[in-house]
Design a protein that fits this description.
- This is histidine kinase.
- It is an enzyme of class 2 (transferase).
- InterPro entries: HATPase_C_sf (IPR036890), HATPase_dom (IPR003594), Sensor_HK_TwoCompSys (IPR050482), Sig_transdc_His_kin_sub3_dim/P (IPR011712), Sig_transdc_His_kinase_ChrS (IPR017205).
- This protein is an alpha+beta fold.
- The chain is built from ten helices and five strands; from the N terminus they run H-H-H-H-H-H-H-H-E-H-E-E-H-E-E.
- A hairpin with a 3-residue loop joins strand 2 and strand 3.
- The relative contact order is 0.07.
């Protein structure tokens, strides 16, 4: 399994996206508040000055209602899950019509009182937001002209040059703020898209790691079954065939020895299977490594004797091996390597002599299995056993070397550092 951290958006990135979204919402709400404040202030100022005619109050009320209805509708649409091209086109037409009504009501109010000129500032945002850029610029210029020069025609005594410069400055400022708002909106979308992509990548990576873990576990279980139950059953099958032959010949003494071997192998395989089911443990290493290897050697020797194919099989131990000095995964793997090597010898090598040597050195443990059998070409070897041996040893940063040639015997050398404590050797 890969221990590297999965690709994911950091809390800082998520917080930044949320902060930008909150700023966008704040700006939108602020725009509506400014519009409501300017409209209400103009009405109050006119009423206080005695200019609050029924036409002015009615037009202001209608403008407030139309504005509120339009913004409410637009807000609901923004949160709608439906966004198709036809709906977008219809929205653009309806929004343009709504804007035309708002502007018409505003022009009417400006005609009634100069105090409504300052609604130009929030209206610039609406024009730029709703209309295409080119048309919007023309619309903003026209709105400024109305705010600057309509009072000069209808409210001449109260008009001066400030009524031109003031709306112009406000309009330019509103345009700058609007395009900053748009840039911020694009930044929010970019951050949101990036966060979504990172979350998607994280989910895909998690799924890939989960699948890789399942495949690794499957491979591990396959090796474990091959090296325990499968080998034991293979031995039972071979000895039982020999026992059947002796039964037919009436060789009861040899038959009895073969049945004892079958019973011992079946008991051993059953114990292995129970340990495997219980906790997926490998060989029983409550004993020392040399003792475990001696049992493997003894079982192999007994099986070959029961088959009528005696094998001169010896175990040599070099150095004082302290069980506390050898990590349990290393001991477990050495037993499995010995099992597989001896299994290959009796199945394929047709050897008459095998020497197993276990050695403890300064910083590593070695296991050599040498036979005088028929040998083979390692470059063309196939099967599951040797690749499984290499995988087990590689999990512990060890090495496996096989030297063999046809009719020249085989030598398997395995070396594992004593610092290896990987639990992956369990499989």
């Amino acid at each position: 399994m890969n221990d590297s951290a999965p690709l994911a958006p950091t809390p800082t990135e998520i917080d930044a996206t949320r902060a930008l979204s909150r700023i966008m919402i704040f700006l939108r709400v602020s725009l509506h508040i400014v519009f409501a404040f300017l409209l209400g202030f103009a009405v109050v100022q006119n009423v206080a000055a005695g200019n609050g005619s029924w036409r002015l109050i009615t037009a202001a009320g209608v403008l407030a209602g139309v504005y509120m209805a339009g913004t409410t509708w637009e807000n609901r649409r923004a949160h709608s899950l439906v966004a198709v091209e036809d709906t977008d086109r219809r929205w653009a037409i309806l929004a343009a019509c709504w804007l035309a009504v708002v502007l018409a009501l505003w022009v009417g109010l400006v005609a009634l009182s100069m105090d409504f000129v300052w609604l130009l500032f929030p209206l610039v945002f609406l024009i730029l937001h709703i209309l295409p850029t080119g048309v919007a610029i023309v619309g903003v210029a026209a709105a400024w002209a109305v705010a600057a020069f309509l009072p000069a025609w209808l409210h001449t005594p109260s008009w001066n040059v400030a009524n031109v410069v003031g709306p112009l400055i406000g309009t330019v400022f509103a345009i700058g703020v609007y395009f900053t708002y748009r840039a911020l909106g694009r930044e929010v979308q970019t951050h949101a898209l990036l966060t979504q992509q990172l979350l998607s990548a994280q989910q895909q990576l998690a799924m890939s790691e989960h699948q890789a873990g399942r495949m690794e576990e499957r491979e591990r279980l396959s090796r474990e079954i091959h090296d325990t139950v499968a080998q034991g059953l293979s031995s039972i099958v071979l000895v039982s065939r020999a026992a059947r032959s002796n039964l037919q010949k009436g060789n009861l003494e040899e038959l009895s020895a073969q049945l004892d071997t079958i019973n011992e192998q079946a008991s051993t395989s059953l114990a292995e299977a129970r340990r495997f089911v219980r906790d997926l443990a490998s060989p029983d290493l409550t004993q020392s490594l040399p003792e475990a290897l001696e049992k493997v050697v003894a079982r192999t020797r007994a099986r070959q004797g029961a088959l009528g194919e005696p094998l001169d099989l010896a175990l040599n131990v070099v150095g004082e091996i302290d069980p506390a000095a050898v990590p349990e995964p290393v001991s477990r793997t050495m037993v499995r390597v010995a099992q597989e090597a001896l299994n290959n010898v009796v199945k394929h090598a047709h050897a008459s002599k095998v020497v197993v040597t276990l050695g403890l050195w300064d910083d590593q443990l070695s296991l050599d299995v040498v036979d005088n059998g028929s040998g083979f070409d390692p470059a063309t070897a196939s099967g599951y056993g040797l690749p499984g041996v290499r995988a087990r040893v590689a999990d512990l940063a060890g090495t496996v070397t096989i030297e063999s040639a046809p009719e020249s015997g085989t030598a398997l050398a395995c070396s594992i550092p004593l610092t290896s404590r990987s639990t992956s050797a369990e499989g």
